[in-house]
Structures are given as C-alpha cells and as structure tokens.
UniProtKB/TrEMBL annotation:
One Pfam family in the UniProt entry: GntR
InterPro entries, per database record: GntR_C, TF_FadR/GntR_C, Tscrpt_reg_HTH_GntR, WH-like_DNA-bd_sf, WH_DNA-bd_sf
Key words of the record: DNA-binding, Transcription, Transcription regulation
CDD domains, sorted: WHTH_GntR
Domain HTH gntR-type stretches: 8-76
Residues annotated as transmembrane: none
Protein's organism: Nonomuraea longicatena
Protein known as: FadR/GntR family transcriptional regulator
Gene3D superfamilies assigned: GntR ligand-binding domain-like (1.20.120.530), Winged helix-like DNA-binding domain superfamily/Winged helix DNA-binding domain (1.10.10.10)
Entry keyword annotation includes Transit peptide: no
C-alpha cells in the first residue's frame, strides 16, 4: 500500500485536534464548544473543512450540533464501544445472530446486577417495568422503549462499563430490528412476564436465578422468531 493512500487527510488531523481540544479543555458531555467561526480561526482552516470534521464527530456521538444553538460535547465522547451509524438493516438469519449475541452477553450481566444492585437502582428497574405494563395493549413504540431501557439498565447495574456499552450499542444500532422482533414475537404479556421474572431474581439478590431467567427469556424470543421466520403466517 502506498504512502499516499495511508497519509492522514486534513480532515483526519482536524478531527484529532477537535478531540484534543475537548479533552485538554476538560469539557464534559453537554458543555458548549466554540462556534464554527471561532474554531475555523483557531485551527486556520476553511469552514467547509471544519464542517467535515464536525460531521465525523457528530456521527459517533462525540459532539452534537444543535441548530440555532451551537456545538456541544456529545454523550458518547467517553465511550469505548461505538455504534456504527452506517449499519444496514438486518433480516432473517441476522436477526437470530443479534439475539444469539445478546444470549451470550446479557445473562452473566443479569447475574452481576443481582449481586450489585442497590435499593435505588432496583426501584428504577421496577419503574421501567411498571411503565411497560401500561403499554401492553398496542402501544408498541412506548412498550419497546421501556423494554429496551430495562435491558440497558440491567446491563448498567452489572458494573462493567464496556459490556454495558456493547449491549447499548447492539440495542441502539439495531433498534428497528428490535422493534421487528417485538412484532414477530407478538406476545407482549409473555414478554412482560419474563421481564418481571428477571427483575424478581435481581431483587432477591439471586445471581444464578437472574442469569437463568435472562437466558431463558432471550432463548424463548429467539426460538419464537426462528419458528416464525421459517413458517411465516
């Protein structure tokens, strides 16, 4: 491979300088950054070149560009695992692969959550399922959001930031696939009851039961999806 191909572009260098500015400036998620005009002057680049670097950073969640307000440090600036914003939609066997990945990752995290959860965090999980329970009669957008937030919160309680980011990335990048899984599974009460069983085990401080129930839940979903993909109604 030639040196020309591997040589960093001006936009590459500018992206790194923007990240250095955020880090060395002690900026945190939500902090406002200088305007595009100020940044162009600081880095001695044209506005189009700067905007290309800003778009790259925005695509990974490192910054947020708010119309009429300015440029802000994004919530993903400190993430180690980033979702791919260009990921194609998944179909068929890939949906099963997605669930297979979750079966490997999430049950052990549920076990850790059962060991480490506090009263406040347990109350938060309970509120999420209470919210889900109010949307079992066809309000699928709200139900889906509550369900996915429950899975994210459970992974967060495990205390491993990297694995929490892996789960969050899977659920974020493949949000449309997760909604499709809910539609194909088509048994909202059963799904809800399985979530309640997971929560009960976590609340009881029983890591083995929490791991077993999370695995059973995800395997159940995958089994139903596999059957219905093979024999569509």
């Amino acid at each position: 491979m030639s040196a020309e191909v591997t040589r960093p572009t001006l936009s590459d260098a500018l992206t790194e300088r923007m990240l250095e500015l955020i880090r060395t400036g002690g900026h945190r998620p939500g902090d406002r950054l200088p305007s595009t005009r100020e940044l162009s002057q600081r880095f001695a680049v044209t506005t189009p070149t700067l905007r290309e670097a800003l778009r790259r950073l925005e695509a990974t969640g490192a910054i947020e560009m708010r119309h009429g307000s300015g440029i802000y440090v994004g919530p993903a600036i400190e993430r180690l695992v980033l979702p791919n914003p260009n990921m194609r939609a998944m179909r068929g066997a890939q949906l099963l692969d997605l669930l297979g990945a979750r079966i490997v990752i999430e049950p052990p995290l549920a076990a850790l959550a059962a060991e480490q959860a506090t009263d406040d965090s347990l109350a938060g999980l309970r509120r999420l399922l209470d919210e889900a329970g109010r949307h079992l009669r066809g309000e699928d957008a709200e139900l889906h959001e509550a369900n996915m937030t429950f899975h994210r919160a459970t992974a967060r309680l495990a205390g491993n930031g990297v694995l929490h980011e892996v789960v969050d990335s899977l659920l974020t990048v493949h949000a449309s696939e997760q909604r499709e899984i809910l539609q194909i599974f088509d048994d909202r009460r059963r799904d809800y009851d399985e979530h309640l069983a997971i929560l009960t085990a976590i609340e009881s401080g029983d890591p083995e039961a929490a791991e077993r129930r999370m695995r059973a839940h995800l395997v159940d979903v995958r089994t139903v999806i596999e059957q219905r993909l093979r024999s569509p109604q």
